[in-house]
Write a sequence for this structure.
């Protein structure tokens, strides 16, 4: 265990500082402090209170002269003054006086050429265990020579903001000061805010300082050829599930960078959804819920200590965090080669998009900035059923720069490396949500496999004039009738009406948000028939 003085951490007088504890020590501390209970698997089971998902309305960026012209300000990237930031930070530090504090010195970026050091200061031992498992863990030598962090995160869920006095939206506040290299997280027990704040920081730093494309994606690679694949998509679209393929080597499940050398995981762990987790359907994730992992908001029987993954009474957004080494087929170094294939995952609640289609460079840039999907229940506060949305770059809440910066980087890399891109709908078929059915996972897996091994290129393709997509007419182990969504609807007129509505939503969204995009990209989107 390392030791730090309060002064070194910028704190006043906490009762005790525990720095860089190992998982068994953090498990013991979390249980001793009553933060959670131990399940039969050995996982620490915690509840996060009223915040069971991210709280986007409570996220802010400090607006300073050094960053003002770089940030894409708006409803997602909300400005706040340095004065507000410092006032809340001061109160959080005062709140910690006399309390135990837990510190983890970790890193983001498995490729040490691009690594950034993050010091996480936690009120809760369970959250310190969470981030210990999620970030890249330094070797003993790296920890010895750690020095000062590049960024510091202060996470104090017990401190509640006063919206009127503190100029916040609620009792919670997640504020990033890119210029001061400091992040504060107050009032929310949802640990995902920590990892996404780190991600948002990397998404700011990597393009500007390293010419690295940051990606809200999972990634894996072929164990023989080493060819990598990237899976973009919002929470609940299947990134974790589809990348945890026993036939391939997992690089990471959520956050990556694409450099001139290849791709690399920003993290050293996984944060998987647990709702309806089934041992047979997702054995890799199921087996990762073991000692040292942190399970959030999964209902546990107090007598048997068995987890009920099918109980959503606390939230649909049940989660488990674990080191990536808990996945048997994961690569230890977190790096892979240049991606040969990119998969854009979307959960279409309208049920009108093809389950898989091929994209040109221009179409890939269009769908990258558009980021159409459906927010699924529980991933954010207030989401009770699938809600169609457009999330820029399949990760809008975490992308602070102008979307064109990221899109042009993607287009350049696609062209340079001849990377193929496919749009995969993991949402509904045969009707919209409430009428149709979710596309079966085994069919989605078969389509993704065909894209990865290249066999899909041997199919005949039909051009969908409305959505401007090239749709394969045969895929091995996939019923042909589901490849063209109109054929799965009993009421063809209803399909046409719904499809026209969605196509118009695409056009309106693009015209409103991305008028500065090149004409050839604008022309690659849905058309009016």
């Amino acid at each position: 265990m390392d030791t730090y003085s309060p002064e070194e951490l910028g704190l006043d007088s906490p009762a005790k500082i525990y720095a860089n504890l190992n998982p068994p020590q953090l498990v013991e501390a979390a249980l001793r402090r009553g933060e959670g209970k131990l399940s039969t698997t050995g996982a620490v089971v915690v509840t996060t209170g009223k915040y069971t998902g991210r709280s986007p309305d409570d996220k802010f960026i400090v607006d300073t002269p050094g960053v003002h012209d770089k940030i894409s300000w708006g409803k997602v990237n909300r400005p706040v003054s340095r004065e507000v930031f410092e006032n809340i930070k001061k109160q959080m530090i005062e709140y910690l006086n006399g309390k135990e504090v837990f510190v983890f010195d970790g890193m983001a970026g498995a490729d040490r050429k691009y690594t950034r050091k993050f010091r996480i200061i936690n009120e809760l031992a369970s959250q310190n265990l969470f981030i210990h498992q999620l970030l890249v863990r330094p070797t003993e030598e790296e920890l010895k020579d750690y020095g000062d962090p590049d960024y510091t995160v202060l996470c104090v869920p017990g401190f509640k903001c006063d919206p009127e006095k503190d100029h916040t939206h609620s009792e919670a506040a997640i504020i990033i000061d890119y210029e001061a290299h400091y992040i504060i997280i107050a009032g929310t027990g949802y640990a995902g805010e920590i990892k996404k704040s780190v991600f948002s920081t990397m998404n700011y730093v990597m393009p500007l300082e390293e010419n690295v494309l940051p990606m809200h994606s999972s990634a894996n690679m072929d164990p023989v050829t080493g060819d990598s694949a990237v899976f973009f998509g919002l929470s609940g679209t299947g990134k974790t599930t589809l990348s945890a393929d026993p036939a391939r080597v997992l690089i990471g499940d959520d956050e990556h960078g694409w450099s001139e050398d290849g791709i690399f995981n920003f993290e050293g762990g996984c944060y998987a959804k647990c709702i309806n987790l089934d041992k047979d359907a997702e054995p890799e994730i199921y087996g990762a819920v073991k000692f040292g992992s942190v399970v959030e908001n999964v209902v546990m029987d107090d007598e048997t200590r068995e987890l009920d993954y099918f109980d959503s009474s606390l939230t649909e957004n049940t989660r488990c965090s674990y080191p990536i080494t808990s996945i048997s087929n994961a690569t230890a170094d977190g790096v892979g080669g240049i991606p040969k294939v990119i998969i854009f995952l979307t959960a279409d609640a309208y049920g009108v998009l093809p389950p898989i289609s091929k994209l040109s460079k221009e179409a890939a840039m269009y769908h990258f900035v558009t980021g159409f999907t459906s927010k699924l229940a529980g991933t954010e506060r207030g989401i009770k059923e699938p809600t169609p949305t457009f999330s820029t770059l399949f990760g809008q809440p975490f992308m602070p720069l102008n979307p064109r910066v990221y899109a042009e980087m993607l287009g350049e890399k696609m062209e340079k490396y001849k990377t193929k891109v496919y749009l995969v709908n993991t949402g509904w078929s045969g009707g919209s949500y409430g009428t149709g059915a979710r596309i079966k996972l085994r069919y989605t897996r078969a389509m993704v496999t065909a894209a990865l091994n290249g066999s899909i290129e041997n199919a005949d393709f039909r051009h969908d004039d409305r959505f401007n997509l090239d749709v394969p007419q045969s895929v091995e182990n996939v019923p042909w009738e589901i490849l063209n969504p109109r054929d799965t609807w009993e009421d063809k007129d209803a399909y046409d009406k719904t499809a026209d509505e969605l196509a118009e939503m695409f056009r309106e969204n693009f015209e409103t948000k991305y008028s500065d995009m090149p004409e050839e990209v604008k022309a690659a989107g849905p058309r009016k028939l």
